[in-house]
Write a structure and sequence with these properties.
By secondary structure, this protein is an alpha+beta fold. Helices cover 35% and strands 27% of the residues. Helix 1 runs parallel beside helix 3. The N and C termini lie far apart (54 Å).
Length: 159
């Protein structure tokens, strides 16, 4: 009889321990990208040369949390890609990606049928991707000075 050794568990435990640091990194990057933008309007757009328009859409706003959609919209096609949904915890100075597509925007993937290690790995991957994208946006020149309120929410933004 052979015994299978599960080598993923230590990696999942490491991911779980590092997730709070990753969430703090995302919050710091968002703070650089839009320090006071959330207070100004529910929908903002950032336009910089040689880059697609970046839209920020506030989906929920509460005393200590906000839920936002951050998406590129390519001119002429109204294609949104990437399309990140982010929960921001203002009091804890943390933020996390909940999804990167319109179909997953509000859905949660927790539940009794999904093992905890699957949730941790999924969260790790989403949040690492978000950190890389936020770094890219900052390198492109998007920031607090480039965001302007949008008077009317465009139809192509999924709400």
């Amino acid at each position: 009889m052979l015994t299978r050794v599960d080598t993923q568990r230590p990696q999942v435990q490491r991911f779980a321990r590092q997730l709070p640091n990753l969430h703090a990194t995302i919050y710091a990057a968002l703070n650089l990208l839009l320090p006071d933008a959330l207070a100004r309007a529910d929908t903002l757009v950032s336009s910089v040369p040689a880059s697609a328009d970046l839209y920020l859409n506030v989906l929920e706003r509460h005393d200590y949390t906000s839920y936002v959609q951050l998406t590129y919209v390519f001119a002429g096609s109204n294609v949104q890609n990437p399309n990140a949904y982010i929960r921001i915890y203002h009091d804890a100075h943390m933020a996390e990606a909940t999804a990167f597509s319109p179909e997953q925007g509000i859905d949660r993937f927790a539940g009794p049928n999904l093992p905890i290690h699957g949730q941790v790995v999924r969260s790790w991957r989403l949040n690492r991707a978000l950190v890389k994208w936020l770094d890219y946006l900052l390198d492109q020149g998007h920031g607090a000075a480039t965001f302007n309120p949008v008077d009317e929410i465009p139809e192509f933004l999924s709400i």
